[in-house]
C-alpha cells in the first residue's frame, strides 16, 4: 500500500555545511518519498480525505494545478488506487517532471501562468473550470485545501521533532503553497515556541510583504523563476503564525548555489533546495547561528528533476560565469 511508504524520510547531517557555517546542519531528504518529493505527503492527505468523505466515486479523476511535484504525487497515488489524474502544469515545468507525469498515466495540460494564478488560462483557473464541468472529478486544490498543512503538521513536523530528539532550533524551507512550512512550523512551535521557522522565496514574491504587514506594491516585477516556490498572492495554505521570517533569494544566486554545492559534495539538489542554500549564503549575517544550534534544511526534491534546467544547461553555466562568481569546473 503506497500510504505506508510515504514519509519517514532520512534527516542527514551535512558535514560540509556544518563546517562552513560552524553549527549543526541537517538536511531533510524528501526525495526518498515514493513520488520522490515532499508533495506525496500533501497529495496523500488530500486524496485520502476525498475518497473517505466520498467527494469522488470509484474510478473518478483527480484534478490539480501544479508546478509539477504535486501533480506527480497525485498521479502516482491516483494510479495506485485505481483513479485517474488530470494535471494542469505551468509552462515552466521541467521536462523531467512532464516525463514523470506521463509515466504515471496523467493527462497533462500545459498552461500560461505568466499573468498570475487566478487569471483566465492559468493552471488554477483551468483546473477549477475542468472539475466544475466534468462528472466524477475532484479538484484537490492544494492552495486552499486544509489537508495540505495537515499533512505536514501530522507527519513532517513530528518526524523532525523525533529525529532531532527535540533539539531542533531552526527549520529553513522554500515557500510555494506554504503548506510544508506552515504544518512543520505549527507542530514544532507547539513543542517549543522559540524554534525559528524561516521561509525562502524568490525575489519579488509576496510572502515577505505579507509577513511584514506591508502593502504589496502594484508595480512589483514578476518574481524570479525558481520552480516550486514564490507566489503573487497569499493562499489559504500559508499560516502566518507558524512562520517567523521569510528570506528572499535571486534565481541566479540559487543556480550558482546548486552548482557550487555539487562541486563541494557531489550532491544534486533540487531548485528550491538550492534556494535554501542561497538563503544561507546571502543572509548568514542575519541568521547568526551559534555552535549549539541544530538547523534543519528542508529539501523537497532532488536535482535529477532539473538536469536540463540547471546541471546540464550551457546557458546556466554562461550566466554564472558572466556574473563573475567563483570559477566553475
Ligand atoms: N519546492 C518544490 C520543488 C516544490 O515542488 C514545492 C511545492 N510547490 C515547494 C518547494 C513548496 O512547498 P509548499 O507548496 O509546501 O510551500
TrEMBL record:
SUPFAM superfamilies in alphabetical order: Tryptophan synthase beta subunit-like PLP-dependent enzymes
Protein name: Cystathionine beta-synthase
Swiss-Prot/TrEMBL cofactor(s): pyridoxal 5'-phosphate
InterPro entries per the UniProt record, alphabetical: Cys_Synth/Cystath_Beta-Synth, TrpB-like_PALP, TrpB-like_PALP_sf
Organism placement in taxonomy: Bacteria, Pseudomonadati, Bacteroidota, Sphingobacteriia, Sphingobacteriales
Residue stretches making up the Tryptophan synthase beta chain-like PALP domain: 4-301
Keywords: Pyridoxal phosphate
Gene Ontology BP terms: alpha-amino acid metabolic process
Organism: Sphingobacterium lactis
Domain of life: Bacteria
